[in-house]
Amino acid sequence: MKKLIFRKFNQDTLRFFLTSIFIIGLIVWTLQAVNYFDFVTKDGHGLKVYFYFTFLNFPKIIHRILPFVFFISIFYTIKNYEIKNELSIFWINGITKISFANKLVGLSIILMFFQIFLGSFVSPKSQFKAREYLKNSNIDFFTSLMKEGKFINVAQGLTIFINKKNDDGTYTDIFLDDSRGSNSKMIFSKNGNLVDNDIQKIFNLQNGKVINNDKSKINIFGFDAIDFNLKNLNSNTITTPKIQEIDSIILLSCFSIFNTKIFTEFDYCSEKLSKDRKQELLKRFYKPIYIPVLTILCCFMIIYSKSNINYRKNSNIIFFIIFFLLIISEASLRYALSTSYSLFIYLIIPLLFFITAYLIFYRRAKYA
After folding, report:
1. What pTM was estimated for this model as a whole?
2. Which tens digits make up the pLDDT trace of 24-59?
3. What DSSP assignment string belongs to 177-218?
4. In the chain, how many H helices and how many E strands?
């Protein structure tokens, strides 16, 4: 009977948790996707790149909101059970408040390890894949950005200026500055038109001059018509993976005396990234320890019944204490590596909170 009662409570909690985290995650993802739309409007990437990039950033959002949503789920379920007098079923069947709290703490520890797995492996890998996809994608939306009187510099090493766009789709007075190779060149053209299809993407230029700068030697020649290739251009979008996008194994290898330099393109083991690297590892592997702390604080809700005159007041106090603790968990990480003393404080705070809260709860629940 006891197992059935706990099973129902866990099912109700997880059902509310999964529903809430999906809805809140979707809302945050939608708001973030609006910001990512710059990849289309400013950086020349197509809609396919945009949707794929935003989709792969969804695990990061889930990882960030998971502790808050779990706290709301536990808090709501306990309060809902108390209002409907369903908590009394636990006590009638001989389940003590201490054993009830232990079960919830056990559930939170399982979720804590899931949070570590999500933040240490799933989220970095999905973000890294998104960055790699962005890096390897062409600027297939580039030609639609061609507007008169505007400098177009979304492609790396290439700037285009068009003075006028005619009604028939052609352009007048065109300037191109191409510094992608070892030798830079500037092109002036009186007329031009774009050829943009599945086979080719070129700028057909007529009546102009090319100024080549070859190792400080300047060559100038005129042309009647030339084709400037616009296919396979590299975007100015940042394609270097950030620390939060790097696999945990690579970051951990930086602390090994047998460091094999897994990453050859970017040196994430450099001394200047030491603080960022340690901070990221703390966020992935240690910060989830706050989940059991939030859970034991929620368990204070069961000490007093709804018939108690201070029940609502106590519920509000518990809610704001937990909410304040969530803020501390976010803010303190920024200063955790300022000194060795601050790191010690950061590591000890959640443990002290949990031990103190559990001892106080144990004492009050025993005589409640």
Report:
1. 0.74
2. 999 998 887 776 666 555 555 556 666 777 888 889
3. EE-SSSSEEEEEEEEEEEEESSS-EEEEEEEEEEEEEETTEE
4. 12, 6
